[in-house]
């Protein structure tokens, strides 16, 4: 058996199966979190702990897709360190895909490495895994008997 060796400089090939699995998992986790009905521009405040609070806002609703923004709310953190994730829900494909992270609205699935902005080779997979970790955190917090999803008017 001959081992395949990935040398330095070989092109990275995205693992689409892993990305699709993560996006499908995110869809299932998000459905466990959201109420059955909600409206455009509806916002929920999700409090995990005293110093870990997020706002989840519905930014777009169409027939088969919806868009959301997840924003960390913390007066102690500078703006550039607050988590800011935009994601789209595809109900027909039963997937959730991150479309923006930290105000970057175009996330490439394959980045040359090294690169001047220090993006990971698999940036798209990484940000979708981050959303999965966040959704797991909130769903597990909810399973512990605390409902972190509270609809509240947001005043910044």
Automatic annotation (TrEMBL):
One matching Pfam family is DUF1249
Going by the entry's taxonomy, the superkingdom of the source organism is recorded as Bacteria
Cited PANTHER family: CYTOPLASMIC PROTEIN, CYTOPLASMIC PROTEIN-RELATED
Spell out the protein name for this chain.
DUF1249 domain-containing protein
Give the source species.
Psychrosphaera algicola
